[in-house]
Amino acid sequence: MMSDSRPDLVIYGSPVSPFVRKVAGVCIAKGVPYEIEAVNVFDPPAWFRDISPMKRIPVLRDRSVAEEGVAGTIADSSAICAFIEKKHPAPALYPEDPMALGEALFIEEYADTALAMAGGLGIFRPIFFAISKGEEPDLEKARNAWANQMPQIFDVLEARLAGREFFAGGALSIADITVACVLMQVSLVAETPLDRWPALAAHFAAMQSLELIAGPYAAAEKVIRKALPTRFDLT
Ligand SMILES: N[C@@H](CCC(=O)N[C@@H](CS)C(=O)NCC(=O)O)C(=O)O
Fold it and tell me: Could you tell me the CATH superfamily of domain 9-87?
């Protein structure tokens, strides 16, 4: 019998999405092979709309379940990461202790929503989407988000870290991976001075030194730097 060298797990999307990088990071942490299949979420093919009811990337396919159609697919990075944890338990990326688990899941959600709104919609998009269309970046909008939206979020993250190395359970978890991936969406287009938030700054630096964070980010940067050679200063 011929062996199939293709990985079971396919991530539909682009490494430019922080949520795609989050799923990729979880796979790397666990040593699970995966591939990314490019889907342009702003003009998706019909088959993608079927597997992504909210028209979002990423969607995961487990080819060992089904090679096409809705079966074997999971939409939403949080659902995908929980699935990968169940299928490949080691190393654990979700705390065992119930309260620590709850804390980790809250930080994941906070990064996926509040941080992604401020950093992704408030900073990344006004800069990079404009540049992609050959327009001037909306630096006023980005500066406003950096000055007026990000600080409250950084305050919350700083307080939750409370000087510790990790957000929950005393070990690397889905919370740390998600915060780093989403915050690095800002790094793609702008400097991210975090002097006022020392615990978060240390956490961010430590995360960036991990291959599971740096590898997928490098793939995104390769795309971004073609259109935007240097980062903006938003201060
Ligand atoms: N909660 C979702 C968010 C996914 C998401 O917002 N993805 C963005 C790309 S970073 C997207 O697909 N946007 C499509 C659009 O805005 O139409 C997840 O965690 O997977």
Answer: Glutaredoxin (3.40.30.10)
